[in-house]
Design goal:
- This protein is an all-alpha fold.
- 74% of the residues lie in helices and 0% in strands.
- It is globular and about 55 Å long.
- The two termini are 41 Å apart.
């Protein structure tokens, strides 16, 4: 698949080519060639050649992306069993469902600093190890407190990897930001859907114990450690990251709060995350309240989630070919508005159409990741922008699903919640258009 990728050189790529660091591929010429000449002469024994190193990065990106959601969706599939066995109250279970975005916001802020200190590959490697350890320990942690602590460990690993994956794509594939972001987003969507669909059957195959059904996903995280472990053996990895931060204009002193584009991306990320969490948490219930059978409602939700697998690969590739990503933002937003309107007018009659439309609308997530990679010149700048946009965005997303639940409970129907969802889609489109303008956060921060 690597050899067949078409070059997607964009304006921000051309401006960053001169600052591409060791480990990044050249924007022209042999697609397997990198600009790394200093490391090849001092490569430690056993470290792969440049071409294989590039292929290892691709494998590492895919495996890491597959691990960024199973810790959450596998628990959702067995939450009732976990609650009953551990004696969780409803409020504690509600806290558990709110922990992921909170952890993403808090721990994601530390990712750029860790990347400058140790190198982004080493941090992602540690993140995969933390995910594996957390998933392996939490079923047998002994009580609710231990379960929450082990879950937080896994979510910490997810948080730092969430932030650094766009930076790694920018650094290694500056002329293929769209293709590699699409591949990463597609793998993330596939991991999300697979864990949601397969956890219960796997649990039953392992004897029906929810502990085994949750712990099995630690094996996938362990597999993801291997390519990154090999890559971090390169002595220059952390040094290159620090050099890029110092020379690329994206050192620790870059203040994202001075950039309107950074703020627009953060709000866009938060609002699309709000819509996604509301959809995942409540859409099946909307269909069931409309008279759709429980099994069919679950299948409709699965279809919505599965839409992200092919579109997550296509949308970033299209986005990098456009000078302005605003038209894609508007198209996705209109799909969301149509889906919400359909759920209000005829939730059961047009259920499949509304599920498809909302699945398309939720693909604002890979678009947001792509714009993060395009709105900064260097990998270090992308890491800082990613940390700011994702941490701020996930904080914004926390109240949305809770507010929908409150409106549903007090109004006794879905009219007000659907009105809220539709109302939030309007500012999402507005800030998305601003975030899609052809400019970089380094330029804005410098002013």
């Amino acid at each position: 698949m690597m050899d067949g990728m078409v070059s997607e050189e964009t304006k921000e790529t051309r401006t960053s080519t001169s600052t591409t660091l060791p480990g990044a591929r050249a924007a022209t010429g042999d697609p397997m060639r990198t600009t790394d000449t200093s490391l090849s002469a001092s490569r430690p024994p056993g470290v792969p050649t440049r071409a294989w190193r590039t292929r290892l990065v691709v494998v590492g990106i895919v495996l890491a992306a597959l691990n960024l959601r199973p810790a959450i969706t596998s628990l959702g599939a067995l939450l009732e069993e976990v609650r009953d066995d551990l004696g969780m109250s409803g409020s504690v279970a509600g806290l558990l469902t709110s922990v992921p975005p909170l952890c993403f916001a808090v721990f994601g802020l530390a990712a750029p600093r860790l990347a400058r200190r140790f190198g982004p590959g080493a941090v992602v490697c540690a993140g995969m190890a933390a995910i594996g350890a957390g998933l392996l320990v939490r079923p047998w942690a002994g009580g609710t407190a231990g379960f929450l602590a082990a879950s937080a460990l896994a979510l910490m690993g997810i948080a730092v990897s969430n932030v650094l994956m766009p930076a790694i794509v920018k650094r290694w594939f500056p002329d293929r930001v769209g293709s590699m972001t699409g591949l990463y987003s597609m793998a993330l969507a596939l991991g999300t859907a697979t864990a949601a669909a397969a956890t219960v059957p796997v649990t039953e195959a392992l004897g029906g114990d929810w502990r085994s059904g949750l712990a099995v996903w630690a094996a996938l995280a362990a597999a993801a450690v291997l390519p990154w472990l090999s890559l971090t053996r390169e002595r220059g990895e952390a040094t290159a990251a620090r050099t890029e931060a110092a020379t690329g204009g994206a050192a620790g002193g870059l203040r994202m709060t001075r950039s309107r584009t950074a703020w627009a991306l953060a709000v866009f990320f938060g609002l699309q995350a709000t819509a996604a969490y509301i959809t995942m948490g409540w859409m099946a219930q909307i269909f069931r309240d409309a008279g759709v059978a429980a099994g069919t409602a679950g299948l409709l939700l699965a279809v919505t989630m599965a839409m992200g697998v092919p579109l997550a690969f296509v949308i970033p590739r299209v986005a990098t070919r456009l000078p302005h990503q605003g038209p894609i933002v508007i198209a996705l937003g209109l799909c969301g508005l149509a889906g919400y309107a359909g759920l209000y007018v005829a939730p059961a009659g047009g259920a499949w159409a509304w599920a498809l439309l909302l699945g398309v609308s939720n693909c604002a997530f890979p678009l947001a990741l792509t714009m993060v990679g395009m709105r900064a010149r260097t990998g270090a700048g992308v890491a800082q922008l990613s940390a700011f946009a994702q941490s701020t965005g996930y904080l914004i997303s926390i109240p949305g699903p809770l507010l929908v639940g409150v409106l549903y409970q007090h109004s006794g129907g879905w009219g007000l919640p659907l009105a809220l969802m539709a109302a939030l889609m309007v500012p999402q489109m507005a800030v998305g258009v601003l975030a899609g303008r052809d400019r970089t956060v380094e330029d804005e921060a410098a002013r």
